[in-house]
Structure formats: structure tokens, C-alpha cells
Amino acid sequence: MLAERSRTSACVDDATGRVEFTHGDVVRTLHPMWLRERSTTNGTIDPANRQRLYEPLDLDGDLRATRCRVEGETLVVEFSDGHRAVFAIDGLASVIRAATGQPSDEEPPLPEPWVAAGFEVPVIDWSRLVVDDVDVTIAALGAFFRHGCFVLRGTPAVPGALHDVAGHFGRISATNFGPIFDVQSVPVPVDLAYTPVALSAHTDQPYRRPAPGIQFLHTIVNDAPGGDSTMVDGLAAVNGLREVDAEAYELLTTLPVEYRYDIGSDVKVARVPMIELRPDGTLRQLRFSPRLDYPPAVEPDLLDVYYRGRRWLAAELNHPSRQITFRLRAGDVAVVDNHRVLHGRTAFDPTVGARHLQGCYIDHDGPATMWTLAIRGRRAE
């Protein structure tokens, strides 16, 4: 730390009004407006919610930094509009690192692709998690962000318990199936999930805008023969497609596909690429539900590439080398990132035993917030 402190420096470039900042491995030219908008000096932000108390037009368009200096663990910057801001150097460096792909410990862990060999779904004890055990919380969330899934064990195996279980991680987001839906065989199913047939690897509700983020499947009873659960990492499969068939990968990241749910009384449609990427080229979301997808009537040569890529994904996502199979027992809750991890099940016989699960969805910002607060809690301890 002392060595890093000795390499902390800052100066204003008189020609541009920008700040040249160095702190350890962080070397960055900082825009004066970028700094000014991060000021927490009294009067610039609301003390309760930390939102700015001014609009963009309230600041000079040609704002410049005029002076700066390092004072202990802070950086003091003065601006051409007379404002004076004080920044914690470690905090400033952390923000800069995060912007360059070096997340701080308050940022969730990066995803780690996995295949079936050597992988087991992380199992988390609900009784320890529910008492806000920081270590268990970090372990559960760490598993989720790295692998896209985990299983909660020991929750109450009663209908409705999912309100509290999922609510522990974030606010439940209702869909066209309601806030919480029952997954069991019924005479007139509005979805194949409500039948006893086998379901291959898929993501849920790709026809929604946005598609649900994180799925919770709570096991009430699972006594029927069959009905084992499956999971597979879509991130690893997408990476594999990019390596073996770059042409198909490129098309699947750009061709708008129509995902449609239409039962007459309810219609949901989204037209988006099967593989959605972030600006940096990493996977944002995989929509894979081959009973619901309809590519546009583009040139047949392009459709040859599309169907080739989809067929490769369908084979790989359901191959034993990638897909894991396990059985949920009463009180287990499977938690999956619906934008990354695909799930499914084997067929079951509802005439011999009962199989009743309840499901719901939450958004990604719930676990992300929970992670940051848990890390801060551990640091405070």
C-alpha cells in the first residue's frame, strides 16, 4: 500500500483542462465533466438518495479543471466554475478500473463457462442463508454469478413459500403466468411445462420484452417416476459455436428471430437475435426455445446458416458432455440465470405419483445489489 501511495500523482493539463491521474497501476486522463459529476460536495447531491441536484445545462459546456493536488488519501480538484471537489483516491481508482474491465470487489464475479464433467450444481442451505449469514450469502451469489445457477435446500415445501424465498433475493416480477405459477400436469395446458412430456434445454419466455431474468423453481412434491431436472451452460455452448462455426455464430448474433406465444386469448411477440451480445462482445442473453422461434424469410442461403447454427446448439445443449441431470426433492429450489443457463426435465408419469413445482422470476439487479451490500457488510466486520 505504501508503494502504491508513493506512485499517486495528479496534475492539470493546462491546454485541455483535464486531469492526469496516476495511482498504482491506474494511469488515466480524466475529463473535467466526468470528475465534476462525481463530486459529492455539499449542495451537489441530495444527502438521502445521492442524486444530483442539477441538470446538464446548469454546468458550463467548456468546464475545465484549473488546479488539483493529492492530500493524503484524497484528490482535491478545483474547476473553472469555482467548484471544489474532494475524491477518495481508492474509490476513484476503483471506478476507473471497473470501466476498463477490472471490477472491484463490490462488482459481482465474472461468469465462468462450465461443462458437465467435474461440475456439480452448488447447493446452499436455506436455514443459514435466511438468517443473513454473510459468508453463505456471498457463497450463494458467487456461485450464481460465476456459474449461473445454484440450488437452495431445506426451504418449506408448501405452496406459497416461494414468495419469501425468491423475495429474499429481489422483487418478484410478474409475467403472463402471474407472479407465481404452478408447474404440474393439467388437462388443458397453456404451456408445455404444464404437461408430463420431456422438455429439452430451453430458456423461458423468449417472446417477452424483456425476457424474465432469474427463475426460481420450488419443489413442493416430486414423487412421480421421471421428472428429473436438467441444466446446461449456454455461455459455454455459445463460445463453442463461435469456435467451430464463426459464420453461424455471426448470423445468430444479428438475425432478428420472431419468438411467439399465441394461445388466442394471449399473444406475446419479440423479434430479436437468438444470441444477444454486449458492446464488448460478451454474451448478454441467449434466447433458445426451439418450439417457439421463427426466423424471417431471408435468402435461403442465410437460412441454411441459421438452421445449421441452431442445429449445432440444439445438439450441444442436450449432449451429456454439457448437460447435467439431477433430481429435485421436496423443499429444493432451483435458481437459474434465464439469460444464460438453460433448463429442462425428463418425462414423468402423473398417474403413478405427484409432481408439483411453483415458479417465479426476479430481475438481475436484486442479486447484484445483495452482493454489493454483503461485501460491504463483510468489510465493515
Structure explained in plain terms:
With 381 residues, the chain is of the alpha+beta class. It has 2 domains: 98 residues, 2-Layer Sandwich (NE0471 N-terminal domain-like); 250 residues, Clavaminate synthase-like (Double-stranded beta-helix, 4-Layer Sandwich), CATH 3.60.130. Helices cover 25% and strands 28% of the residues. The protein contains 10 helices and 21 strands. A 6-stranded mixed β-sheet has the order 7-8-19-11-21-9. A 4-stranded antiparallel β-sheet has the order 10-20-12-18. A 3-stranded antiparallel β-sheet has the order 1-2-3. The protein is globular and about 80 Å long. The N terminus is likely disordered.
Q: Can you lay out the helices and strands and say which pair or pack?
A:
Layout lengths: L1 H5 L2 E5 L4 E6 L2 E5 L1 H5 L28 E7 L2 E6 L4 E5 H11 L23 E3 H4 L4 H14 L1 E5 L8 H6 L13 E3 L15 E4 L11 E9 L6 E5 H11 L1 H7 L4 E6 L4 E6 L2 E3 L5 E4 L6 E2 L5 H18 L6 E3 L6 E5 L3 E5 L9 E8 L2 H16 L1
Parallel strand pairs: 7-8
Antiparallel strand pairs: 1-2, 2-3, 4-5, 5-6, 8-19, 9-21, 10-20, 11-19, 11-21, 12-18, 12-20, 13-14, 13-17, 15-16
Helix pairs in contact: 5-10, 7-8, 7-9, 8-9
The radius of gyration computed from the alpha-carbon positions, rounded to a whole number of angstroms, is 25 Å
Write out the strand line-up for the largest beta sheet, numbering strands in chain order. 7-8-19-11-21-9
Name of the CATH architecture of the largest domain: 4-Layer Sandwich
Question: What's the number of domains?
Answer: 2
- Largest sheet data: 6 strands, mixed
CATH class of the largest domain: Alpha Beta
By CATH's scheme, which homologous superfamily of the largest domain applies? Clavaminate synthase-like
Helical content stands at: 25-40%
What's the total helix number? 10
